[in-house]
Write a structure and sequence with these properties.
alpha+beta, three-stranded antiparallel β-sheet, 105 residues
């Protein structure tokens, strides 16, 4: 498992982002007043996507994370899902390096 998980909760009028640690404990939350209603009114999901991106950027910035860290996490998830047996050792190395970069304790 990677160092952090970013979880979105998007409803009719608000979207929240939660940063969870390896034990699924909430480490940080952020909220914006954008939801599915805004997409329905505008006729496009662009406003919701922009709001989610702004939350993503805020969560990363507030926690000292970088875009490349999220790319490592995403690639680890993809490798585990598509070829766990073949890539497990390499994923463990990348996860350990990321966790050493951002110790939880």
């Amino acid at each position: 498992m990677s160092g952090y998980i970013l979880y979105y909760d998007s409803g009719t009028s608000n979207t929240r982002a939660y940063l969870l640690d390896r034990d699924f404990q909430v480490q940080y939350t952020a909220k914006t007043a954008v939801g599915s209603k805004d997409s329905a009114i505008s006729g496009s999901n662009a406003v919701l996507i922009q709001g989610m991106r702004a939350l993503y950027d805020r969560v990363l910035s507030a926690n000292g994370l970088k875009e490349e860290d999220m790319e490592v996490i995403a690639s680890c998830i993809a490798d585990v899902v598509t070829d766990f047996d073949g890539k497990a050792d390499a994923v463990r190395e990348r996860v350990n390096a990321l966790c050493a970069k951002y110790p939880l304790y």
